[in-house]
Design a protein that fits this description.
This protein is α+β, with helices and mostly antiparallel strands. Helices cover about 20% and strands about 35% of the residues. The protein has two helices and eight strands. Strands 2-3-4-1-5-8-7-6 form an eight-stranded mixed β-sheet. It is globular, with a radius of gyration of 15 Å. The two termini are about 20 Å apart. The mean pLDDT is about 90.
């Protein structure tokens, strides 16, 4: 997974769709999701998307893990700062954290209780 928050939302969506040739998976006001050829997602957020206010350090990269809760616990035990609670939607769970230099990253994986 990868994502950006940008002041140039419309231009960025057009770039990834028309120039890069990515397939739009979902689009709504201030948000666009693209499906990569391997099934991964790349998402673009506008500044109006308040759920991603912490995306201030550039592109955010997500690391796939087998167990989000266990990985988060291990990282927290090592002193890593998470910027929000673990979230879930459908079959995917994720949590965002700060790296040593303040950059935002994500851990994500399967949601065994999609509800």
């Amino acid at each position: 997974w990868g994502g950006i928050r940008t002041e140039r939302f419309d231009e960025s969506v057009a770039f990834f769709r028309d120039v890069m040739g990515l397939t739009v998976d979902e689009q709504q006001s201030g948000f666009a999701s693209f499906k990569m050829p391997n099934g991964d997602k790349f998402e673009v957020f506008s500044p109006e998307d308040s759920d991603h206010d912490f995306f201030t350090t550039g592109p955010v990269i997500g690391f796939g893990v087998d167990d989000v809760d266990a990985t988060r616990s291990r990282l927290e035990d090592a002193g890593v700062e998470f910027v929000a609670p673990t979230q879930a939607e459908g079959e995917y769970r994720w949590a965002h954290f700060r790296g040593p230099d303040g950059l935002i990253f994500e851990i994500g994986g399967r949601n065994d209780n999609p509800g």
